[in-house]
Amino acid sequence: MWKRDDAVRPGGGQPTSSNAPTVVGVPIPRQETSHQMEKDIVNIGKSVVIKGELNGSEDLTIEGHVEGTIQLRDHVLTIGPNGRIKAQIFAKAVIVLGEVHGNVSASDKVDIRENGSVDGDLIAPRVAIAEGAHFRGSVDMQRKPGQVQPAVSPNAPTAAVKAAQPNAPQGQTQPQAAPQTQQHPQPARA
Amino acid sequence: MFGTKALKKFLAFLTTKPSPVLIDLGSVVGGNVTYFGEQLGCKIFVEDLLADVDRHVRQGKLADLPAFMKKRFPQESDSVDGILCWDVIDYLDKPAALELATQLSRVLRPDGALLGFFSTGRPPRESQYTKFVILDDVNLKYRSYPAARGRQAALLNRDIIKLFEKLRVSDSFLLQNNVREILFRKPA
Predict the structure, then answer these.
(1) Does A38 have pLDDT greater than 90?
(2) How large a percentage of chain A has pLDDT more than 70?
(3) Which positions 4-63 of B are in contact with A (Cβ < 8 Å)?
(4) Hey, what domains does chain B have and what are their CATH numbers?
(5) Interface touch A187/B174, C-beta < 8 Å
(6) Strands A104-112 and A126-129, how do they pair?
(7) What is the pLDDT of residues A124-165, one digit of tens each?
(8) Interface membership of B157 toward A (CB under 8 Å)
(9) pLDDT at B4 (0 to 100)
(10) How far apart are CA B168 and CA B159, in angstroms?
(11) Distance, in angstroms, between A189 CA and closest chain B CA?
């Protein structure tokens, strides 16, 4: 049976497949690749340093150092605990367990896990930042025109959103009445 | 868990904006970022001022804090819809608090809202900051963590209003835990 890792053995034939990540158009030798659960997951090991543009069309895990640009438009990029990235990142989803300096743009989700660190701006419809993660920058989750928005009316904001929000934070109360209009600014003991 | 009266009003205001821009001045709370993103579809600038205060204390440069505050916010004037100030002002000396209030008033858009928490009780013995974790629009969870500097003497109501003299008080609540929640609005 053909094994992908055979390709990286000395004299093991073609080093890459057609959809392998490339650095400025040049395929990365698959010295750090592995198969996991029949899914193509490419692993850039911690001794690997890449400077330039990294493009790919499969999921990728980076444990090494990358400087420049990373583009995995339709795939998941995982920055492993040893990964050190100084780059602009574009991917479908980005999971950060290591360090990222640079802006991260994801069409689906950015997930900064515990001990993960991002210094840069995030653009994604969904963002999760775990307790213990470091983040400095801005988070842009603005809904683009045409994107489906929760049924929110200015007079009943949270109630309507929560009804369509099964994953809302725990402890939430029943939908509240519409907020009152502006009150006289007298302190009130609650 | 603690109740909040003003957060709901703050959120109600922001939901009237199509893609609001927020500044969150407290320490990073991932759940809050997710909450605001999901509820409002907004852009949030996470500016951990307490980390800045800590750094100044450790470096013995507390006197530089007002000048630092003056340059701290790169946002353009009148560009931000909402500001979550939490209890940051409680940890600042007056000159730094005044500069911060001036800058926040500057970046806030006309008709924008600023939510501030102000302690009215005696500062605790331990130096600690508080993370305000949003559970929903009327409930918060407080989480303390070590700080290089404790809370300063509580400000009087009139002092707070004076700090934010370019804004007007829209709502003010004194909670049972001695926290005063004030929702400011910038005159349109």
Answers:
(1) no
(2) 53
(3) 5, 8-9, 11-12, 14-16, 19, 28-31, 33-39, 41-46, 48
(4) 2-185 (3.40.50.150)
(5) yes
(6) parallel
(7) 999 999 988 999 999 998 766 555 444 333 333 333 333 333
(8) yes
(9) 92
(10) 13
(11) 5
Q: B135 is written with which tokens?
A: 């559970």
Across A53-57, average pLDDT: 92
Overall average pLDDT of the B16-26 stretch: 92
Contact B12 A142 (CB under 8 A): no
What's chain B's length in residues? 188
> What's the ipTM?
0.85
Q: What is the DSSP string of B156-179?
A: PHHHHHHHTTTSEEEEEEE-TTSE
- The whole-angstrom distance between A187's CA and the closest CA on chain B is 5
A39 at B interface, C-beta within 8 A:
no
Is the predicted pLDDT of residue B167 greater than 90, yes or no?
Answer: yes
What is the distance of C-alpha B89 from the center of its chain?
A: 7
Radius of gyration of chain B (CA): 15
**Nearest residue of B to residue A160, measured between CA atoms:** B39
Enter the DSSP assignment of B82: E
